[in-house]
């Protein structure tokens, strides 16, 4: 399926077959997901794949009652954002230095800026993490669609409860649950026409 087809035929899937999503397919999906842009290319996120019944229960138990349907997905993927926004900075800056895109002085200036960002208030951090996890989430769901796998973004769950169950670091926030699997049934909802959402 090409990108246009994946987008044109998008639907949020909540009913799944028993077919397993293979590990090698997931690896291809995550390879595509890493192409998503993030601020300064810091990529302060990771995905946790819950694939056993015991592992999935951690997400199901954290979900609000109306979202307990996620238990029927083949896997539940948890998108986690890290308030230590420079968690990958050394690796990112190392590549930039090797490629000659920055020098040591620029690298140090960037590190100082990351520290200032981390010192800002919770409202700023929530907005920063939201922006820098939602784009990877979209890439992930489109990549799933490309391989015929259905998904649905779910936010109705207790972040503190899931954080504890997954033993996340203090700086990590579970941002989104994305149940995935091969679709049993798809209901495509009405969408506004493209001409209605832009001004020229």
Topology:
Elements (H helix, E strand, L loop, with lengths): L2 H6 L6 E2 L6 H11 L11 E6 L2 H10 L12 E8 L6 H10 L5 H15 L3 H25 L3 E2 L7 H7 L6 E10 L1 E3 L15
Task: Describe what this molecule looks like in 3D.
- By secondary structure, this protein is of the alpha+beta class.
- Helix content is 42%, strand content 16%.
- Strands 2-3-5-4 form a four-stranded antiparallel β-sheet, with helices on both faces. A two-stranded antiparallel ribbon has the order 1-6.
- α2 (23-33) packs across α6 and α3 packs antiparallel against α7.
Q: Short summary of the structure?
A:
With about 200 residues, this protein is of the alpha+beta class.
Count of DSSP-assigned helices: 7
Question: What is the CA-atom radius of gyration, in angstroms?
Answer: 19 Å
What fraction of the residues are assigned to beta strands by DSSP? 15-25%
Structural class: alpha+beta
- Percent range of helical residues: 40-55%
Distinctive features:
200 residues; alpha+beta; 6 strands; 42% helix
